[in-house]
## 1
Amino acid sequence: AQKVTQAQTEISVVEKEDVTLDCVYETRDTTYYLFWYKQPPSGELVFLIRRNSFDEQNEISGRYSWNFQKSTSSFNFTITASQVVDSAVYFCALSEKRGAQKLVFGQGTRLTINP
Amino acid sequence: GAGVSQTPSNKVTEKGKYVELRCDPISGHTALYWYRQSLGQGPEFLIYFQGTGAADDSGLPNDRFFAVRPEGSVSTLKIQRTERGDSAVYLCASSFGRGIADTQYFGPGTRLTVL
């Protein structure tokens, strides 16, 4: 069965610190996709990144970077030089071939960046 | 272009009543999804439409929940005989319908409160 675990319920850091959000997944499929979404206080889920199971290259987008490691079934998200606007709940999600197109989400990590 | 829209943004109802929640997907998206998000949790899949047909309704909790998409665009989630446990934010998402690689784009949600 597919499952996503975000063990960090809440993280609080001071602005400009780097912070890493952990995501561990379980799947029996060899073909799957991993996603990160941001949910700011307004409530709308905002898509950040998609990664397929055959591409383990890390990705960087500005202050955001993602580390995908199949050996540990992890897809971690790092924010460098955090800013107050990064405060939100972040969700990791998985879609697998057997699960049709539904997303399975983790419980989310609430990130608070303090000025 | 316009994103996914959902109406109403808030709905308060009494236990036992019937409610309808509406979702208008992004133009050109053939796939539409409903999720439910309880407080402090990640979204949970309810149902997925490809065109007019429900391709996967495995997440609907019981037969009080029903969804339609008669013309392959707007969808309505219907809940009969509402219970207090139905209180949650109901999220709608849409995508191009290309399979598990699709990125789902979410609407702002409808917050349902059952008194």
## 2
Amino acid sequence: NAGVTQTPKFQVLKTGQSMTLQCAQDMNHEYMSWYRQDPGMGLRLIHYSVGAGITDQGEVPNGYNVSRSTTEDFPLRLLSAAPSQTSVYFCASSYSGTSGNTIYFGEGSWLTVV
Amino acid sequence: AQTVTQSQPEMSVQEAETVTLSCTYDTSESDYYLFWYKQPPSRQMILVIRQEAYKQQNATENRFSVNFQKAAKSFSLKISDSQLGDAAMYFCAYRSVPYDMRFGAGTRLTVKP
């Protein structure tokens, strides 16, 4: 079972560079989201999608863009990387419906901006 | 906005003993879910236990149980018969809408042999 797959797992960027973190799920989940995890903090929601063609901002959206052209994929784009975006990024997905539905997390992407 | 607070940055327990991790949350919602996640050094997020707010009965999963006090907005995790493999970061999380999970800052649990 592939579940939620994130690539790349590790990335070093220079300030001002752009990149895309890829996320794919094979469970036909309607909901997908991106979180970031910083030292001493829990995961914080960046952007989320409730279905193909529908995205919205979470708690910390600045500096990131997303799109959802298919049910399976939900890429996260950094247009001009900044050192403050050094973090571990998690993609997650779940079925729609109640808030009790299990969220499935990817294994995380470690991003360092120098 | 909903907030989740874990007041214990670090906890330690002797192998085979019992430890309780604390969590409080703030919300005006009446219908929500609470979760405990385990994050080992690999950083994988592993669901430990889930509690529905409308259920008075505390959730239990093998050696893991919760003490859910809705009026006090408290949701603690008890780990019985602690094992070396329980060592990890533990995150308390709250969810009232399906697409937004709010996490506490985490508690690092050390298990001593």
